[in-house]
Design goal:
single chain; mainly alpha; 8 helices
Length: 244
């Protein structure tokens, strides 16, 4: 349990750590934002394809893996369709985002962080300690630019710095709670761990392809975003190789 608390806490705190620079940097170019998003996408793809999916396949079979990935994709699709939310607007002036849109943005980020938290918890419940470390690190790295972008939207229109931090802390708490559910779920019902790992892998791939890649290519910065995606992928591959 101590191993879980340390790694899941560090992973979730990545969102808060990433938000702090945004309190000092009130304006970020679309190019910078797209590079951060693409790097995060690369990290998540590698975490899924080199961590979650191989582990699920090792513990089960192709049928379990397919079921879990499809289930994660379908569930995220249903949540996206039926839970009101919005995504960061492509606008050079973050102040143009209305109060209602900012609150919907928080709901959107919270929605995206739930499968990430589940991924962390389920991987830490697995008997392979390296898997938990890899996934926790991957989610923590991905949370850095995410926290930065959330805080940036709010800090751009707030004179006080405390409010953006509180919003980010709320998103962080939701992710950690999801990781706790994933950990308890995996600990009590170990035979379902491969399903959970495949589910988390599918959910992460959905977020990357549905949200992060289109968002990072929306402002004409396809080339630097592509390189950032590749470097993010290599970061996780290198980490996986180093831990083996």
């Amino acid at each position: 349990m101590e191993h879980y608390l340390v790694l899941s806490g560090l992973s979730a705190l990545g969102t808060i750590a990433g938000s702090l620079p945004a309190l000092l940097i009130r304006n970020l170019s679309h190019r910078g934002k797209d590079i951060l998003l693409a790097y995060s996408a690369g990290v998540m793809v590698a975490a899924s394809t080199y961590g979650l999916i191989p582990s699920a396949l090792k513990l089960s079979n192709l049928y379990v893996l397919t079921f879990g990935i499809v289930l994660g994709t379908v569930l995220l699709t249903l949540l996206e369709r039926y839970i009101p939310h919005t995504d960061p607007a492509h606008d050079s002036d973050a102040a143009a985002v209305s109060s209602a849109s900012r609150m919907l943005l928080i709901m959107s980020m919270t929605l995206h962080n739930l499968p990430e938290g589940l991924s962390t918890g389920i991987s830490l419940a697995d008997q392979d300690p390296q898997l938990g470390a890899i996934v926790s690190f991957a989610i923590g790295v991905q949370n850095l630019p995410e926290g930065f972008l959330i805080a940036l939207v709010f800090a751009s229109t707030q004179s006080r710095m405390l409010k953006p931090v509180l919003y980010v802390c709320g998103v962080t708490a939701a992710e950690w709670f999801a990781s706790l559910l994933g950990y308890n779920f995996g600990s009590e019902l170990r035979f379902l761990i491969p399903y959970g790992l495949a589910f988390a892998g599918g959910a992460m791939l959905y977020i990357v392809y549905k949200e992060l890649i289109p968002e990072s290519h929306g402002d004409g910065n396809e080339t630097p975003a592509t390189f950032a995606f590749i470097f993010g992928t290599l970061t996780m591959i290198g980490l996986t190789h180093w831990l083996d």
